[in-house]
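[Meeting: bench + compute handoff]

Bench side (C.D.) handed over the final construct sequence. Compute side (W.E.) agreed to return the predicted structure before the next meeting so the bench team could plan truncations. Sequence as handed over:
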Amino acid sequence: MKALRRPPHRKQRRGAALVEAALVLPVFVGVTLGIVEFGRAMMIGQLVTNAAREGARLAIIEGSTNSDVEASVRNFLQQSAGASAANVGITITIAQAAGNPNPGGSLESSHSKDVVTVRVEVPFSSVSFVKGSFLEGKKLVGQSTMLHE
């Protein structure tokens, strides 16, 4: 029985797979991490919008205060997105309805049919998995507007 020999062209290709992997692998890993980061940015963006909506729901209830709404929004984002309370920016604005006295930015003195807007901002760098420069400095913003009850 004759021993099997490798074809001659196989000797010339030794190490080619390793070189190809070394060239392609960094690009593949970079693209994969980019997809994960953009997916995370979209998810956190939805959570920020949900936090603003929850804050607006609380804000339109009679007897709620600005500090109650801010604490609720910060707690929501801390539990759902892992965002530090110090990194969450919350703005509550109240537009008075026709015939109502000016609430002066305080939920305690707002009245029925006043328009309450809760805006929430979180820097993406505080919730990202991978530190990079592409989304560095960008803020994820959510806003919700409702009529005071």
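W.E. noted at the follow-up: The mean pLDDT is 87. C.D. will use this when planning the next construct.
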